[in-house]
Hints:
Elements lengths: L3 E3 L5 E4 L6 H25 L6 E2 L10 E5 L5 E3 L2 E3 L1 H14 L4 E6 L5 H13 L4 E4 L2 E2 L4
Parallel strand pairs: 3-9, 4-7, 7-8
Antiparallel strand pairs: 1-2, 4-5, 5-6
Helix pairs in contact: 2-3
Amino acid sequence: MAASLPDNNGEDSGIISSINITPFVDVVLVLLVIFMVTAPMLVKDILEIKLPKTLASDGKMLQTLGVAVNKDGNILLNGQITDEEGLRVAAKDALSKDADSQAIISADIEAAYGKVVRVIDLLKTSGVERFAVQIEKEEKK
């Protein structure tokens, strides 16, 4: 049975035929917020990178270029495998858009030290002056 609205005289004026989408919009926005919060955490797990742990960290998360080195020595730029030239071009492109561009470097704990140093050198020679090494905070015992 359809609901109807009474008019000023107490008589039914017609059937309500519209759908209230406010609850639907609320649910969609909550799901969007959940996705936005969990997506950065999932990227690290998908790329299979084990970050080194330290007792102190500054907690800053300003990110322009996301560079990762996995245990096989592959360079990933914002989640996509790239080569040294691709990294160099992306760094110069980011600097042309914003002179204060920053790179966040994530390296697997088993990645070759020389490969990580090479990535840092590529970024610095491309003009990126600000970069950070991503770590996980070690739990105190």
